[in-house]
Amino acid sequence: MSARLDALRKGLNGHNNCDAFFSVSGPDNQYLTGLMSSFGEISSAIVVSKTEAHFMCDFRYTEQANDEVSGFEIEEITGDIIVEAGKYLNSIGAKRVAFDPSFLTVDEYRRLEGAFEGALVPDSALTKNLRMVKSPEEIQILAEATNLAEGVLSDLIPEIKEGMLERDLAARFEFEFKKRGAKGPSFDTIALFGAKSSLPHGEPGEKALEVGDVVLLDFGCRREGYCSDMTRTYVYGQSPGDWFDEIYAVTLEAQLAGLDAVRSGVTGKEVDAVSRGIIDKAGFGKYFGHGLGHGVGVEIHEAPRLSKPAETVLEPGMVVTVEPGIYLPGKGGVRIEDLVVVTEDGCDILTSMPKELTVLGH
Ligand SMILES: [Mn+2]
């Protein structure tokens, strides 16, 4: 963690001339301190200056912080943690404080502004840039999370039977994640059957599996604070038809070409264009309405992006998904997603489940 603090301090000097950093972001605070908490509410505030590294939390986290957080001075707060952080910033003489505006609501900003006497400087790149390139230790954890999730998929495939409900299958994934040592799913598991597979982020419901259904599974777990993410699309019993075989083949070709295009030195939009070009050429461009991929780490969606506007140049150690899809409304869809680590001349693929069209059951 001390290397991360050093990098943050270097970044503070680098632009905007800030003398301190303030954060109540769950993901950033986990990244910088190692303390894992739920991301939904503010559970801690951190202030980092050239000389100070101050961690503030309420009673619920004090014991855990004393055990898990090193390199920070820990202070238990009663009352408004944001106001107290503002007062702390005054006490160390901070004048210009960087913060990530995407992790502070307008209300929180006003409370901080009311307590802190210096200038608040929005900087959405500071921690994003630090977190983008993963260390070997982080890559190891991401690989373990991926292995855990893939093991669950392998073991659940024989359970996928005619009559099974989407939500029952989704629940099986999430039960197994926890049982095998994950904190839980890294996002709500997507298990969609038949025509519902055309909804890229559809919600598993009471649809019962029938012969000839598409089975789209997009899932991941969170383990030691890091997320995994992958998608496989199958058919049950038999293919729903030639239309499906065609979109599956095109999606797979686009996915393999996308993987082939990932390497250090190319931009996110260049990789996106490779896969998108194949889908466009096959005539399905308008049915691929999302970006090709996204970074994965402490958060399930983080920088860098692989998408039409993504200018970020890929570097070794970045971890991204490659997940083209084709979605035909009312008929069904395909998405194939791997998680990869960018290397100097290509990528290491963390996911290993086969991708050729597989007929489940029967
Ligand atoms: Mn994804």
Descriptive notes:
With 362 residues, the chain is of the alpha+beta class. It has two domains: 2-131, 3-Layer(aba) Sandwich (Creatine Amidinohydrolase, Chain A, domain 1); 133-360, Creatinase/methionine aminopeptidase superfamily (Creatine Amidinohydrolase, Alpha-Beta Complex). It is 35% helix and 23% strand. The protein has ten helices and 20 strands. The strands form six sheets. It has a six-stranded mixed sheet with strand order 4-3-2-1-5-6, sandwiched between helices. A four-stranded mixed sheet has the order 8-9-12-20. A three-stranded antiparallel sheet has the order 7-10-11. Helix 3 links the parallel strand 3 (53-57) and strand 4. The chain is elongated and about 70 Å long. It starts with a helix and ends with a strand. Bound molecules: manganese (II) ion. Residues 229, 294, 321, 323, 337 line the site of manganese (II) ion.
Give a short summary of the structure.
The protein is an alpha+beta fold.
Order of helices and strands: HEHEEHEHEHEHHHEEEEEEHHEEEEEEEE
Look up the CATH topology of the largest domain.
Answer: Creatine Amidinohydrolase
Instruction: Describe the sheet with the most strands.
Output: 6 strands, mixed
| Strand segment tally | 20
Number of discrete domains: 2
